[in-house]
Amino acid sequence: MSLFKQGRYSGYLRPISYIIDLLILNVIAVFYLFKESYPFAFLALISISWFFLSVYSHFYEVYRYTRPISILSLIVKQFILFLLVIFAFSGLYHELNMYPKPLFIYALLCFLFITILKYTIYYLLQKYRISFGGNFRTTVIIGVNKKTLALDKFFNKNPEYGYSHKKTFNLKNKTDSLEGCFQFVIKEGIDEIYCSISELSNTQIADIVNFADNNLKILKFIPDSKEIYSKKLRYEYYDYIPILTLRTIPLEESVNTLIKRVFDILFSCFVIVFILSWLTPIIGILIKLESKGPIFFKQSRNGFNYKEFDCFKFRSMMPNKNAHANQATRGDQRVTKVGKFIRKTSIDELPQFFNVLFGDMSVVGPRPHMVSHTIMYAKKIDKFMVRHFVKPGITGLAQTSGFRGEVETDKDIIGRVKYDIFYIENWSLLLDIKIIIQTFVNAVKGEDKAY
């Protein structure tokens, strides 16, 4: 077994690359363009413009299967856009005495160092995968034809891309079956499933999609002339082999992850400093005056990638043995008078901003469930596990759409999963802000299921 990380994502690599690139831009500006002064307006401009340009040009979207020529294309595109921005800035601020030639040399130096860094990281990662077997993803292929055999060969002949191919299943062979494939995927901890559409029936495709969603597996298709789905699919190339990705998740992009994390940290710090700092002693005294027991209630819940974490709340019930197993119901005798108020106004959820600060949760996301309920719903509700592709939230689209509180019927949890999946596939910072505002409005107005 490898001692090195296997994970699906290189979560820290892109943010670190981004920070190093910004350092290169600023250091060269200080030592080459401005040797005696430090024009902070220019430094701020190049940092902010670099961020937005990189988002626009997808500069940091370099994957393990990206070809070197594609990286060069990204670099050239970013270079031209960045050059236009700094030339425009120099034209507006004549007092800085920035001339075209020094600016062009500055940009050239920046991109020389950034190009060297980008290719160094790219090839070092390949060397790391070949020599140490780290940063790899395990794969299986379902279906045998020319395209799947080519992909099988690609995985086995190119270890630098970081794929460890375990098995190719031929469903037309009586020795292989779809159920056997599923058991193999679970037993071997497979990360990604690749399917040839031409080798599968519509029923088999539906079964594979459901299995992948319910077991947190990445599912990709090798396309052919058969129509698969009406939804938008992401089109990629592994060498010269076309691949379709079933579900695109905006928060898998490092830039989006960074934006959401920065927002979470700033928002949670604001709430902790300006609200919880004075509200906690008041709520704590009220809870203690009414009943014996701790001020805070801690409960294990499932979060990102199905990992368990301790979710914090203000205690709203009398201490009881069933608190970790049974949800609060309408007229629940366990709920205290103070608890009824803080649950109605959602004040009991505020300590979860510490969970956000610690990185277990986000301000907005699918609401986490008790471990026992997660296990139950995963077995009976289709696509329930898709919710765990992102961090859980204090509030979410499902909660602002009428699916908060107690799950009284299967219709409630099905509706919640529907809205959660929509949020995961259509995330944006503006959507988060809209959900936060709607949550505040609902808390002030009061909701029927807030009990």
Automatic annotation (TrEMBL):
One of its GO terms (molecular function) is phosphotransferase activity, for other substituted phosphate groups. Its main location: membrane. One of its GO terms (cellular component) is membrane. Residues 260-444 form the Bacterial sugar transferase domain. The chain crosses the membrane at residues 12-34, 40-59, 71-92, 104-125, 265-287. InterPro entries: Bact_transf, EPS_sugar_tfrase, Undecaprenyl-P_gluc_Ptfrase. This is Glycosyltransferase. It comes from Winogradskyella psychrotolerans RS-3.
